[in-house]
Structures are given as structure tokens and as C-alpha cells.
Specification:
heterotetramer; A: 328 residues; alpha/beta; five-stranded parallel β-sheet; two-stranded antiparallel sheet; 12 helices; B: 341 residues; seven-stranded mixed β-sheet; five-stranded mixed β-sheet; disordered N terminus; binds thiamine diphosphate; binds magnesium ion
Chain lengths: 328, 341, 328, 341
């Protein structure tokens, strides 16, 4: 529910120009939340660009999780604080990172599992293949979660793969593959938990395919009517992961109207706080451009920094304005 | 070499965007030659994320304009195989940084195939790559990767800066029997110019630079996304008493030494302007060859205005990174004018 | 038999310095010969750097097939003459080429199948994955033959893959996978023929794994004793594909002593001719360096060619020698 | 910057090869710091195809020196993950052209990770790449790929030309908290120099060029495989009355402008020498920056002697492609000496 509100709020922020772009995970909240929930504190999450909700669910400050998409900085959070790798834009490239980190942790004797997220489209990349193979050969404690939402932007799964399921890809690496209803939060959680346990216990990697659907367009910049039918969307809307979870909880007597109202209020509060904070203009210092390229700034970058400093000073002087400038 | 005004002076009906001109070039090439096949991510039903392939799948069918699986090495690698069989694939890479997975196919096969088969197996394929910044893209969506391609013998590297050239050069790239890396300046996709889709411009031979603005004081050497910046700078420079010539390279490989050197010999001063990082970027090559050819005509060293030597910055800071009019004018001011007076 | 002689002769040529390097396919002759034999004239073969024997078996002149390794030119043959792609040194990169060519042929309505060769090590590359996937999605008429010879240079299969067999990799792409004894020429031929027929009939791609062994070192430059035991080699030597075939043919009465002697003589003749021809110094023109980079030589290359011409002329003049020089 | 003789003057016992010095650098780094992990194709049991990792698996175990599956993007990508966890991976690419599959990981992650995380996530990894020609390799085994890495902000690019530097620079690369592309000149692997493995050279800080031979007439600017060629040319030039200074860059990034400019200001003439193709190669950048800094001291344009703008040729023709002593002397002769007398 909070996840849904996060998505609608973020999408709303793009309309207000407060986010440059937002790849919504509406419809995929079960996967997003389960991926975060299944990990212990010392584990690592490797998100792709669509997974900012999972990042938030892992504990990262929502504003920090959104800076990449707001445009004020790249990764807005310290990856080490909550053990969340940067949101990865180049598809599937985060998968070998997860494998390497998992292996490194195991070599050091640390009890760490890495969970890496990728889309159905991303499974076609060579990096997917190489990461799966390295993970299997090394028996690294890593779990791959494919969120199969049926599309890679406009390209449907049928043009992406001829495999019976994406989970079948596990066979070729000698690792277990699991297929799960990606809109059933409890089911996703169960399957992932099993995989995480196996990894933790030395049983090696698992590939999990969660079948789900992207309710929104690819990003706010995309026009999804070009490539899919309203009917299809409507059908998936009716099979909503948030509703499903609510129904299941109510069915088992774990949620009543009061509780539901409380959660809804909390989600509204969160969205309001997020809206408010995102409406603040970030204060940026252009001189930061040079500070983190290398451990020590090279002389060439010193020189370029001096040049920019002089330009900014000249502008500031001309305007009689303070030197620190705001970003828009 | 011809001297053209900045805006092409076609007998145009209404203005068209660069994206539209590119689309039209693809369309006309496909209509004329059944060997031309367009392929890439989202190029079919969606018409590409920049809509450059809009309508092609509808008009020519999925087999001529194909949504591929999401794998750039696979796209370029299978295009190589198609070219081996006599087709003329036109590959779209969705963004600059997403062409990198296909780097091995490009360098080790596309660029080398003709040479390694003694000429028996040419590679008449075009790789379209939207490049550069200025559109507020998140990281990995704004790289200027032209230096990589320039450093790879066997490739032609072409980039249009005007709507008319977008059409003319893309037609030439597709018609070329050599592989062409065709770099499309993202931030000019929506630039407009009077250009009639019914009378599209002529095919513009690859390898010829053009003087976009004649001038006498100094030469600005540029290409692609930086052309408008240079033209604006040249206008602004008039106030300072400088009459700047602006050369649009259009083709980075082959390089038109004649046009560039002729201009610099005449003006005696030059600044190279591009978005790519300065160090190891195209400007070094250009400055070096201009200096080799014009040394005794130069009043000052050839200067460079380029992106900083940093990974491309986040959208809110990109305007500080990109070479703008002021930075170009600053460089012009440093061309040792005292020496003259 | 001729294949074996080709390998021993080529290896011998490296010892005489007539080949810069030779990656022998001794032990893999059954695969090499079957791969060529199974194709019809209009089909295409996509060899890797180790497959010069298959190239020769396809009809390419042995000297032309060896120029790459002798060092006088890259691809020594016209790929269109026998429909054989250049020997591919960058591993697995030839696989997407095969897929693209097969697709192009089908789009043109031509009855062409592409057969692509790759090693066990090569299956780990991203290009393998992407080629398999494109082939399956496009149902392209292509056959992938993995010659699993147990090693990628020094790295044994156990460090390369955790899959039950490499043929299992087919599952993840939705294509048939076949496992075959790679030292049994008849079996390899049968399995490949089936796959080629399926491709030709519109049934799409097949992955074939042929289990075999590399009897020689990786190349003449390699020292295989560093990474494998003599026992292992001896065991495989005893299971020799040429002997196996001879035994099978004799068993079925298709080969007698006379015939065997005739084949042996032929092989010796071929080797003798090859030795003789390879001992001729190739006549090379350094000016060829510039001729085939582009369809039309650029002005810059013209200039560089003039520079080299002048250098060569100066040398020739100084030596009073003819301008055309031989290569060593 | 220090002025050294061409051959390091260590208190050496017997001569060692560059390959041995590199092996020793890896060994010492691994012995000192358990975070150092070596990985790549055939680096374990075999000791690498050039034997640079010889004995490391035996001494430190398979987990510290690891034979990986055959997939370069996977090797570098998993190394990135290991670096994220605090290790110091040293990756071996088997040959220059076989590093290309890992290009996306290198450009989009290795080079950018520190920057894109605001400094939180450094990438203390080293990518060792044997590069260049001259050893009779078949195609794809002799590329000079340094221009690609120079054009990628965020990487250090280092290449030794002497046995002593091989040790000192590799130690520095591994110790660096920034990613270093460490380019090993293939044809110098078996070059020898007096160098005592028991008293290995000091760690040589990255970023400092060195004058290998002092001279007064002109400066040869070079690095890696071309250093011996330049030293030989400098000897031969004495007969022509030229006293050539030879600068070994050692580090292409960061670039030591001071040492290079100081030399060229003094000599007034310069030639850049490298194997990589001239167009778009390192020489353009070097010539351009030298000219920017030394313009009024230059008697002639900075010239370049480089590989031709062609795919690397087959072994039997490579000597025509590689810059040799004669070609260097020719360039020196074209430095407009008439003007002086
Ligand atoms: C290497 C690479 N190629 C192309 C892109 C451009 N791109 C961004 S998202 C996308 C589709 C991704 O589809 P999928 O993996 O299914 O994830 P989803 O968007 O559905 O979550 C593409 C092609 C990219 N980011 N990285
Ligand atoms: C992309 C690439 N990486 C590395 C190499 C170097 N290399 C040449 S052969 C070889 C081993 C190949 O093993 P395999 O695929 O099993 O084929 P085999 O040699 O056994 O026939 C390696 C690593 C290469 N040629 N191409
Ligand atoms: Mg998807
Ligand atoms: Mg093998």
C-alpha cells in the first residue's frame, strides 16, 4: 500500500517536473517489497533502474532513492549504509556485481547473501548469462529475481525469449529455477526466502522468475498505448498485488478496516512528506563535479575546477548574487 | 566543399525536425533498396524511443524493421551475419552508453571484416547511435562516445548537425559499402528547419566538412551538438569585433583536412569545440592535425573547448559541463590577439 | 585419416617455423569432418580458430586455410567460394554471425542452413547466450555445435560450467539440445544431420554438444603438462576417433586392408603436397596493407601509402634489389 | 620527475625479464595485502599465457588466484562486485582485443563507480592488459587499445617500458584506490635488465613521466613498446648531429604535463611515437597539449610517428606497420631544421 502510494506519488512528481523521469513499479509492488523484506540486515540488494521502491523498502530514504531520477545527483544514498548497490541503468550489468560481492563475502567468511533484480528484457543480455554462470561455478550465495512484467519497454516477451519460462534458464547453469506468481506477495516472499536460505547455507545460487505486470507505462515519457491493449492492462489491474495482499490478510483475519485505514493514512503521510521534501530545491555545488572522479584530484582536474570557479565567480559578481547557486 | 548558411535553404514547405528527417531517410532507403533492414530495441511497434523509426514496421513489415531481443552485442553480431549475406542492416542503439556491450563486435568484426577477408566480405552496415547530453538524461544516457569510434580503423564516423544533413548523411551512410557509425546528437532531435519531406535534400557524400558561417578572425571547428553553440558564439563575437568562421566537420572519419586547413590558414587561429571530454577526445586529434598542416599560419596554438574530464554529470549540473557560448568566447579571447596589434 | 595427417603435418610445420602457431584438432577429427560433411553446398560453416580442418574438409584449399596461422594474411580464402566464414579468433563472436546469416537467407527465401562451431569455453561468453537466444526467437535455420574437448586452454570444464551437460543449455532458450559422443564420427554425423534437416525444414535451431578431447596441447606454444595428467591423455588416445571409424568401417565390411592402405597413401600425398606448398615463401606486397580497409581508400591512407612506398623504394634502391620483396 | 638512464641502475644480481618483474609485483602485493585477488583466464594452474601469474595459485591458493570461466565481462563485472566488498581485484585480460567484451563494465561501472556514489564506493581494481604487436600474433592479438582507455574519464592508464617500472608501477596500480588500466607491452615481456628480485625496485608513483635520455635538439615523447625504438633512434641520430631527448610517459592518465612541457620548451621540437594507429590515437592528445603549453617555444609542429590507420596487419607484414628507427629519424628530419640555421 505504501509502495503503491510511493509509485503514484513519484509519478505525480514527474508531472510537476520534480522528477525528470520515473520508471514506475506499479503492479510490481509484491516483488519490490518481498525482495527487500526477505533480506537480513547484512545482506545486499542489487536493484535495476526500476526498483527504487525495493530500495525504499530496504530502508533507504525515499528522497535519496529518487535523486537519480530527480536529476540532482547520481546515486543519492550511501550504498554501504543499507547495503544497497546503486540503481543500475545499464541493464543486467548489476548481476555480475552481485555475484562478485557474494563471492567476496563468502571468501571473507561473512554470512552475506546478495539478491539481484533484473527484468525479463535484461535476461537477454550477455551479462545475465555470464553472471548466472559465474554464480553457479562459484556456488556463490546469490539469488537472481527476474521480474517478468511481460515487456521490455514496448517489446513483448514473445519477441524476447522462446523458452517455456524464464525460470527454465536455470537448467543451463546447473542451478535451481523457480517460477512464482509475482503478484502474490506471500508467494514471492516464500520462494525468495527459500532461495536466500539455500544461498546462506552454502547451497549456491537460485534463479527466481516472478510473473507480474507493469501497470504504468515504461516511464512517464513513454506512451504504452502504442504497443499494448487497454484490455490487457485492465485484466492485470483486476489482479492487483496490493488488493490481493489486502484480501489475503483480511481473509486470514490479519487486517481489519481500522488497520487498513491506519495503513492508508500512513501511506498518505509518507506521500505528503515525500512531496514536500521533493518540492524543496536541492542545493548543489557545481564544484562537486570534480571532487569524486579520483581519490586524489589530478592536476588537470584542478585546472578545470579553477576554470569553472572563475566562471561562476564572474557570473556571481555580474549578478551580485551569492556564489552558491541553486539547481534550477 | 560548399559554403552553406547555417539553416539549409531548401524550398521547404513547413519546418521539420531532425528526428523526422532521419525517419524519412530510413523510409526512403528502405523503399529504394529491399536489402535495407532496420533492427534494434523498440524500433518496431514503438517506433524507437526517439521515434526515428516511426511507421517503418507498419509500412515495411516486422521483417524489415525488427524489434530484437534486448542484447546489443547480439543485435550487432546478427547484423554482421546479415551483411555477410548481402543485406544492408541499419542498427539502432538506444543510447550511447548502451552501445558498449557491442564494442567487441564493432571493433573486432564490423571494422575489420573487409580488411581481414582481402576485400571479399564488405560490411555495408550502419550503426545509429543517439549521443551526447543536454536533454536531462540520467546517468549513462548522455555519453559522447565518438573518440572510441574515431580510434578504430575501418569505421566511418559521421554526425549531422542540421536537419538537411540528417537526411543527406544518413542516406549516404546506408548507401556506403563501408560500415558507418552514425552519431545522432540527441539534443538536436527536436531542432527544426524548413525542410520539405516531399523534396528531401540530396544525399550528402561522406567525408566533406562545410563552412557554416564564413569569417576572417578565427575558425571554430565543431560538429553535431556543438554547431548551434558555435554559431551563437560567432554571432555574439561580433560585439567583440571578431568575425568567426564556423566549420561543421560532419564526418569525423574520413576527416576533411582540406576544408579545415584552408579555413585555418586563412584565419590563423582556431578553436575546436565539442561536448566529449577534452582529454583523449576528438579535439586532440583535430588540433594536432590542424597544427601539422597550418603551423606557420598559426598566431596562437589551436585551443580546445570541451567537456570536463569527468563522467557525465547529473541533469541539474550538466549545463556547467557542456561547452557554452561563454566558454567558446573565452577561448577565442585567449587566442593571443595582442601579438597581432 | 586425411584429417589426422592434416593435423600432424600442420603441427610439424610449426616446428619448422612455417606456421606461426597451430591449434591442433587432433582427437577432434570426427567432429571436424562431420561438421563439413553434413552440410550441402549452399549451406554455411562458421568455424572458430581451431577448426581449420573442418574448413579444409569443406573444400577450402589447405594452404589458404592455413594462411592465418602462417601469418602472411588474415583470412586466406574467399568466404563466398565455399561458404565458409573467416576463422574466428575472438571466441563465440562468430555465433551471432551465423544466426544473422541464417535469418537473412530465410528472409530472402533461400534454402540455407548455417552451422556454427564453438568450444566448451566459448559457451561462457555473452555472445553464445545472445546468439542462442536470437536464433530461438527468430527460429533461424542454424545449428550450434559445441566441441566439448574438456578444456579451455588450461581450464577444465568443471571450472567453466556447473550444468549437467552443455546440451542442457538449450532448455533455457526453448530449443532442442543433443548430446553426442564426439569421437564417433557416424554418431556426430547422424545428430548433426538431424539438426540440419530440422533447421532446413523450418524447425529452428538446435544445440549439439559433442564430447571429445584435445589430444595435442592448446597450440604448439602451450605446455599441456602444466594442467593435465598423461593418464588422461593416454585414455583418450586409446579412444581415437580415427581408429574408431576405421574399426566401424571394417566391422561393416566397408573398409579392407587395400582400401585402408590407399587412404593412408592419399593422406601422405596430401601431407607431402601441403608441406611442399607451405615451404614456399609467400610473396607479399606491403602496399596491400592499405588496399582493403575501405571500399575507397581515404586521402589519409593514400598519404600513408605514399610514405611506405617511398620507404620501400629507398630500401630497394639502397640494396639495388627489386621492389617487390618476399616476406621473411 | 627524475632523470634516469635507460637501464635501471639497481644493485642487481642477474638480469630479470619484465614478465618476471610483473610476477614478482603481484606476488609481493598478494603477500602484503590479503585483499589482493588475481583473477582471469588461465591465470591459475597455467600461470597465464605469458606466465605473469606463474606460481601464484600454488602459493596463495585458488581463491586468491582464480581461473575464471571464459567471459571477460563476467570477469570484470564480478571483480567490480568484489571491489565493492573491499577487495582489490587484479584482473588479467588475456590479450588486448579480448578485453573488448568487458568494455561496458569498464566504462559504465569501473570508471564511474566512485563518482556516481559521491565517493562512497571506490574501485580499487587493476585491469592488466597485454597490448601491442611485434610478437607475430595472429589477428586480434596485437591491438594497441590505449586510446579507448584514455578517452574514458575515471580511469588511470599506466604502461611500463622497463623491467624496473614493471614492478614499481604495478605495485602502485594495485595500491591505488582508483581503477588502473595497466597496459603491458607484449613485446617487452622478455626484455631483460639487471634487476634483483631480492631487492625489488621501489613502488613508482603513478603520474610521473621520466626523461630516459637527456638531449638538446628535440624531444621524443613515447611510452611502452616504443621506448626501445626511440632510444635506438636517439643513438642513431647522433650520427646526424642530433642530440635527442627521450621522455617515457609511463602514465598516460594522469598525464605529466610538467615533465613533457619542460623538455619541449628546452628543445623546441618534438615527435610523439607510438604503435597505436595515428588517427584518434594518443599522439593527437599529446601533440595538442604540448602545443598548447609550448607554442612559442616550438620551431616546428609536433609530429607524430604512429601505426598506420589500418587494422593490425598479419605477422609477416607487421614490421612495415610498426614505427621503427628509420621512421622516427625521418620525422626528426622533418622538424624544420633549415629555419634554424
Ligand atoms: C544495456 C542497456 N540497453 C538498453 C537500455 C535501454 N532500456 C532501458 S529500460 C529497457 C527495457 C528493460 O526491460 P526489462 O529488462 O524487461 O525491465 P523493465 O523495464 O520491464 O522493468 C531498455 C531497452 C539500457 N538501459 N541498458
Ligand atoms: C573473447 C576471447 N577471449 C579469450 C581468448 C583467448 N583464448 C583463445 S583460445 C581460448 C580457450 C578456448 O577454449 P574453448 O572454447 O574450449 O575452445 P578450444 O580451444 O578448447 O577448442 C582462449 C581463452 C579469445 N580468443 N577470445
Ligand atoms: Mg520487463
Ligand atoms: Mg575446449
Amino acid at each position: 500500500m505504501r509502495g503503491r502510494r510511493f509509485n503514484t506519488q513519484a509519478t505525480a512528481l514527474t508531472r510537476q517536473g520534480r522528477l525528470a523521469v520515473y520508471p514506475s513499479s506499479a503492479g510490481q509492488e509484491a516483488c519490490q517489497v518481498a525482495a527487500a523484506a526477505v533480506l537480513s540486515e547484512r545482506d545486499w540488494l542489487f536493484p535495476s533502474y526500476r526498483d527504487s521502491l525495493a530500495v525504499v523498502a530496504r530502508g533507504v530514504d525515499p528522497v535519496e532513492a529518487l535523486t537519480l531520477l530527480r536529476g540532482d545527483r547520481h546515486t543519492g544514498y550511501d550504498p554501504y549504509r543499507h547495503r544497497v548497490a546503486p540503481l543500475s541503468t545499464p541493464l543486467a550489468t548489476q548481476l555480475p556485481h552481485a555475484v562478485g560481492l557474494a563471492r567476496a563475502a563468502r571468501l571473507k567468511g561473512d554470512d552475506v547473501v546478495a539478491l539481484a533484480l533484473v527484468g525479463d528484457g535484461g535476461t537477454s543480455e550477455g551479462d545475465f548469462h555470464e553472471a548466472m554462470n559465474f554464480a553457479a561455478v562459484w556456488q556463490a550465495p546469490v539469488v537472481f529475481l527476474v521480474q517478468n512484467n511481460g515487456f521490455a519497454i514496448s517489446v513483448p516477451l514473445s519477441k524476447q525469449s522462446a523458452a517455456p519460462t524464464l525460470a527454465h534458464k536455470a537448467v543451463g547453469y546447473g542451478m535451481p529455477g523457480r517460477l512464482v506468481d509475482g503478484n502474490d506477495a506471500a508467494a514471492v516472499h516464500t520462494v525468495l526466502a527459500e532461495a536466500v536460505d539455500r544461498a546462506r547455507g552454502g547451497g549456491g545460487p537460485t534463479l527466481v522468475e516472478a510473473v507480474t505486470y507493469r501497470i504504468d507505462a515504461h516511464t512517464n515519457a513513454d506512451d504504452a498505448t502504442r504497443y499494448r491493449e487497454d484490455d490487457e492492462v485492465a485484466a492485470w489491474r483486476a489482479y492487483d498485488p496490493v488488493d490481493l495482499l489486502e484480501g489475503a490478510l483480511r481473509g486470514r483475519g490479519l487486517l481489519d478496516d481500522d488497520e487498513a485505514a491506519r495503513v492508508a493514512r500512513e501511506a498518505e503521510d509518507m506521500a505528503a512528506r515525500l512531496r514536500e521534501r521533493m518540492n524543496e530545491d536541492p542545493v548543489l555545488d557545481p564544484m562537486d563535479l570534480f571532487g569524486q572522479v579520483f581519490a586524489e584530484r589530478t592536476r588537470q582536474l584542478d585546472e578545470q575546477a579553477r576554470g569553472l570557479r572563475a566562471e561562476l565567480d564572474a557570473v556571481a559578481e555580474a549578478a551580485g548574487a551569492p556564489e552558491q547557486e541553486d539547481a534550477r | 566543399m560548399t559554403t552553406l548558411a547555417a539553416r539549409p535553404t531548401a524550398k521547404a514547405a513547413k519546418p521539420a525536425t531532425m528526428a523526422q528527417a532521419l525517419q524519412r531517410a530510413l523510409r526512403d532507403a528502405m523503399a529504394e533498396d529491399p536489402a535495407v533492414h532496420v533492427m534494434g530495441e523498440d524500433v518496431g511497434t514503438l517506433g524507437g524511443v526517439f521515434r526515428v523509426t516511426d511507421g517503418l514496421a507498419e509500412e515495411f513489415g516486422d521483417d524489415r524493421c525488427t524489434d530484437t531481443p534486448l542484447a546489443e552485442a547480439g543485435i550487432l553480431g546478427t547484423a554482421v551475419g546479415m551483411a555477410m549475406y548481402g543485406l544492408r542492416p541499419v542498427v539502432e542503439m538506444q543510447f550511447d552508453a548502451f552501445a558498449y556491450p557491442s564494442f567487441e563486435q564493432l571493433v573486432s568484426h564490423v571494422a575489420k571484416m573487409r580488411n581481414r577477408t582481402g576485400g571479399a566480405m564488405p560490411m555495408p552496415l550502419t550503426v545509429r547511435i543517439p549521443y551526447g547530453g543536454g536533454i536531462g538524461g540520467v546517468e549513462h544516457h548522455s555519453d559522447s562516445s565518438e573518440a572510441y569510434y574515431m580510434a578504430t580503423p575501418g569505421l566511418h564516423v559521421v554526425t549531422p548537425a542540421t536537419v538537411e544533413d540528417a537526411y543527406g548523411l544518413l542516406r549516404a551512410a546506408i548507401a556506403s559499402d563501408d560500415p558507418v557509425v552514425f552519431l545522432e546528437p540527441k539534443r538536436l532531435y527536436w531542432s527544426k528547419a524548413p525542410w520539405s519531406p516531399d523534396e528531401p535534400a540530396a544525399v550528402e557524400p561522406i567525408g566533406r566538412a562545410v563552412v557554416r558561417r564564413p569569417g576572417t578572425s578565427a575558425t571554430l571547428i565543431t560538429y553535431g551538438p556543438s554547431l548551434p553553440v558555435c554559431l551563437e558564439a560567432a554571432e555574439a563575437a561580433r560585439a567583440e569585433g571578431w568575425d568567426l568562421e564556423v566549420v561543421d566537420l560532419r564526418s569525423l572519419v574520413p576527416f576533411d583536412d582540406e576544408t579545415v586547413a584552408r579555413s585555418v590558414r586563412r584565419t590563423g587561429r582556431a578553436v575546436v569545440v565539442h561536448e566529449a571530454a577534452g582529454f583523449g577526445g576528438p579535439g586532440g586529434e583535430i588540433a594536432a592535425r590542424v597544427t601539422e598542416r597550418c603551423f606557420h599560419h598559426l598566431e596562437a596554438p589551436v585551443l580546445r573547448v570541451a567537456g570536463f574530464d569527468i563522467p557525465y554529470p547529473p541533469p541539474m549540473l550538466e549545463r556547467h559541463h557542456l561547452p557554452g557560448v561563454d566558454r567558446v568566447l573565452d577561448a577565442v579571447a585567449r587566442l593571443q590577439w595582442e601579438a597581432e596589434s
